[in-house]
Each structure stands twice: as C-alpha cells, then as structure tokens.
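Hi F.,

I've been meaning to write this up properly since the lab meeting, where we talked about keeping a consistent format for the predictions we share between groups. The idea is simple: the sequence comes first, exactly as it goes in, then the structure tokens exactly as they come out, then a line or two of notes. No screenshots and no reformatting. I'm using this chain as the first example so we have something concrete to point to.
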Amino acid sequence: MHDYSIIKDIVLILLVSIPIIVIFNRIQLPSIVGFLIAGIILGPSVLKIISNPEQIEVMAEIGVILLLFSVGLEVSLKELLDIKKILLIGGGLQVLATILLSSVIIYVIGVPVKQAIFFGMLISLSSTVIILKLLSDKDELDAPHGKFSVAISVFQDLAIVPMFLIVDLLGTSDQVSFGEVSIRLLTAFGAVAIIIFVAKYLSPHILYRLAKLRMKEIFTVGVILLILGTAYFTYSMGLSFALGAFIAGLIFSESEYSHQIIADTLPLRDAFNSLFFVSIGLLLNLSFVVENPLIVIASSLGVVLLKAMIVFLIVIFLKYPVRIAVLVGIGLAQVGEFSFILGEYGFRLNLVPPELFNLLISSTIITMILTPFLFKLAPRIAGKSGKIDQSKSKEKLIEDVQNHVIIAGFGLNGRNLAHVLKETGIKYVIIEMNPDTIKKEKLKGENIIYGDIGNYEVLKSARIDKAKILVIAISDRSTSRRAVKLAKQFNPNLFVIVRTRFMKETNELVMLGADMVIPEEFETSIQIFRQVLEQYHIPLNVIMQQVNLLRGESYKYLRSEEGAEVGFTHIDEILSARLTDTFYLNDDNKFAGKTIGELNLRSKTDATIIAIVRKGTTITTPNAKDTLHAGDTIVITGTHKAVDDAFDLLSGKSA
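Output, unedited:
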C-alpha cells in the first residue's frame, strides 16, 4: 500500500490556513505569524497531527522557490545593478560584522571557537521570505528601505555558498583543503554567471516560442519548467534552490511576458507559502523552550538587538537618513530560513550539540514571530528618529528660489517633471535621499538637497514657506503622509500633489491636506476608458469632461459608491447622434488616385465626405468626379456606426 499521509497533512495545513488568513487579516497582523503558530500546534510538540514533516519541508521548498521567483520578477536585474553599492558594500559589511561580533560574544560566553564562528554565520542570515512578504504586502519594495532590505537579503543568499564551504572546514578541517574550497567557490559562482548569461539570451526565445503556440496550458507548464529547472541547476552547482529561482525571476522581469507569468504563478506561490511557514513551526521543540525560557528569550532578544544595531550603523555609514536605518535594521533583525538548512548541515557534521541546536531553532522561530509585530511598530520608531535627521540636515541650495516647485524623489517621475520645468523656465528644488544621486546631480548644476521629505528641517531648507507647489513622487507611504501634514502646517497655501499606487490611500492623504492625489491604478483605468471612447469617436471635449470629472477633487466619484455613475450619463445619446471625423490617406492607401464616385462611400457605409483638406487648402462640398490624393485628409460625417464602417473601408479592413 502507498503511504498517502502527505495528502492528509497538506489537507490539514490548508484547512488551518483559511481561518488563519481571515482572522489575522481582520486583526491587521500578517498571516505569517499565524502559520508559524499553526505549525507549532500541529507539530510533534503539541498535537502531533503532522506525521511527515520531512515531506512537508520538500513541498515548502517549492513555496520558497515561487516566492523568490516572483520577487525577482518585481525587482528586475536593472534595479539590482542600480543598487550595486548597497548590495556589495551594505550586504558585505552586514554579513562580516554580524559574524565577527556574534562570534566574539558567543566565544566570551564559553562556546568553543569553531562553534562560535558557526553560530555567527547562522545569526548573520535574515529571512528573505519574511522580509519580502512583509514589504510586498505593504507595497514598500520600491521604497528606499525596501530596496536596501532586498539588496542585503540578496547578498546574504549569495553568501550561503562560501558559508557551506566554511562549515566544511570547521567540521572536517583535516579532510578539506584550501584548493578544494577555492575550486568549489569558483564553480558555484561560475554557475551563477552562466545561468544569467544563458537565461538572458535564451529565455526570450523560449518564451516567444511558448507564447506563439497560443496554448495557455503549454505556456504555464513551460514557465514552471524554466523556474524549477533553473532552481535545480543552481542547487546541483552547490547553490540554493531559492537563488536559482530569484535569478530566473530577474531575467524574466525584462520580458514582455512578465505580467502573464506573474498571473500564472501567483496562486501557486501563495498556496505553497503557507506550507513553508507551517513547516518552520513544525521544527520547534516546545518542551525545550518550557524548560529553558530565560535562555531562549534572552538569546532571541539579543539576536534582534544585535542585528538591528549592526544594520542601523551600516545604513548610517552609507549616508542614508536615520529613519531609513531604523526601518532596515528592524526589518532584517530576525534569523532566516537558510539558517535552518545551514544549521542542520553543521549538526550532521557534529559541529553543534543537540542542546545548542534546539536553542538555535527556538530563537530563530521566535525572532521570525516577532518580526511582523516589530515591522508594524517600525514606522512609529522611525518617525521619532526624524528629530535626529533634522538636526543633521545642513544642506544648502545651489540657487535661492521662491514661488517654486519642490520635487520629492528624483526617480522617473521626478526626472521627467524636472526636465519639463527646466524647459519652461519654472524654478524647482529637488529633495532626494540617495547620496550618489545627490553628488551626480549637483555636478550637473541641479538645485538638489539631501534629506527626508518628511522632516521639518529638510522642508525648511527647500524654502517650503516660499514654494508654490509640492510634488511628492516617492514610493514610501508613511513618509508621504508625514510630508503632506508637515508641508501644510508650514505653508497652508501650498498646492500639494501626491503620487500613490493604490486608490485606498487617497482618502487619508486628502484629509491630511493633499490637494491632488494621483493613484496609479486609476490613472491606468482612466487611460483605458479614454482610448475605448476614442475608438467609438466620442467627441474629445466629451471625453475630457468625463476625465476631468473623475479626476476632480482627488477622484471623489471613484472613491464614492453613490457618485460612481454620475459622470457617465447621456453617453448613449452621444453614440446615437451624428458626428464628424477625419481620415488621413497614407501614400500606400489603395484609394489614393481614385475618385469619390469610384470609392462610393455613401452607398457602402452611409457616411458622407463633406470636405477634403489638401496641402493646407480645404475643398468644400467635393463631387463624385473629385480625385483623392495621397496626403489628403478626408472630412467624413455620419452616425457613429457609419463613420466606423467608413474608417474600416478606407483602412482596407472591409471590402
């Protein structure tokens, strides 16, 4: 008989997952905590319901692969290259400093050197899965602290390769040579380079071939094959499954098929993620925690404080604001999932005794459970740290200005706005938090200052009391809210425009004083409906009336269910009425050189040609003998259907 207990275990986990997601969403806590607690309850320490934790771990690994793949899709290779300084310097300093300080502290307590170094490596790793899940849920992956956290997490995942080799040296130092270690390192990182190169140049062709078959099942299966295949290849080269999946996501992010790939993999990712967090909870030995509560609590809190402080100091060293340093430090303060894998490897090499291994597992799970709670508190703690940033802000403007525009954030939107303002001669001041951007733009003569837009002194330095408009074009929601409130206190007459991603954020920003909130999701929908109405030849003034109505008072009609249909009355009357439109004859149009009589437009479509514009001259009331020339603009009148049919005929779409 086959053992189908794994199916029973998965059914139980999914059965528990549904109420957990509902309950934790209602109390506004991440479901991650619930899954961890569910794993503890279902596991061998409490109810002992899950009978195959090893098989669950394998299934959970698929969840990690899919999560890191989807994160790779969102981050993109170009964005990682843009933050390579944070990735290499910030990530490198974090890993080395954490290993060094942790090892020294653990050695002083009385643990042997080899074990102290081993535990230092375990502590240096944070939970990429938890960090990315929390940042993604709060839509803060593109925020400065989100980019910093992602960069350091990626470096930690890369660092797992040399760490495995160091564990080999620590556990079997008499059997492993330096030459062998060097070869394995070169092989592993050479594999990464090969994967990136091959995937970058082959994956577009593969995806194109899959899409060309026009079979949804083939495309979905092919994408999953590419994800798991890349993950397995990196694993066979001594790297982790997750790193391979992340690299695959980075490559696919440059593809025009990335949106469809996300749609296909997202449901699988969410389902398998619950298995991952439950599988971690299964590892906890609750009896060990009960017997050694003070040691477990002290080690957990010690790890959180130590890691948060190290990351905080590194972010400050890289000249970022204290607020960002606090957010990144708190976000990366836990011990990660790869620590379990590395810890089990060291345990098999007899590098760590069972008691210390249980302490590692207990402390890691507790830090993971604490992380979502700390993540919720982080903005408040970071907000209080703003006073320190204020006292440090001594930036000077290149040019003193008044009646100017303040641009917060010099990303794509900020750059485009600055370019237009420069062309029109309107004075502006840029506020940016990336020190490299500040240095580069100041050399170009830009009126730019370093600082956090949510700080009193930074706004003062930007002459906000003399400004006319403030444009907040950043991806940090909490900073945007604080900036709007401060700016209006400073200058009540200031016109404040805020870019945000989701409609749900609009109400609060308007209540804080924003004059115009531009949510990306509804700007997209407005552009869609505008294009649709244009295709039906709705007059431009009517279309713009609808657009202005929807945008008015920060999308009041879209935010209010009662007024959602107000702007769209009488469209049916417009569609039934006659209209006038124009059609341009290209050089290759088959009707160029033919007479109006030969075209016979009225009898074929019920539309009438009432004028021809040729080289700036208008020919009114043309007759059947008038010839149409390439370059002519034909003025056509008729009902909406008649004009549509005429356009199809003239375009060659109908006979």
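Notes:
The domain at 577-651 is CATH 3.30.70.1450 (Alpha-Beta Plaits).
Residues 94 and 311 are 6 Å apart (CA to CA).

If this format works for you, I'll send the rest the same way.

G.
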